[in-house]
Design a protein that fits this description.
This protein is mainly alpha-helical. It contains five helices and no strands. The termini are far apart.
Length: 87
Amino acid sequence: MPRTARLKTIDGKMNLIGPRARQRRVELGLTHDAVCARIQINTESRWEIDHRDLWKIEARRRACTDVEIVEIAMALEVDAAWLMVGR
């Protein structure tokens, strides 16, 4: 069975959270590596995210699962809803 195309934003991007994730990371004064370390600690190494993956998420070049969004939000000390829609 053929794989269906992933849904993208109107401008062809792969996620909604990228700009807000970057904004919050910068507000906290964290590097990509620092956020990745927080995620790895919070997930007890179940998700060994690499700084390149986080960069791709921020650049909206990589899709995110709901579980990943929740973990990123926790690492950035924000609500997952804000990360997704800005509220």
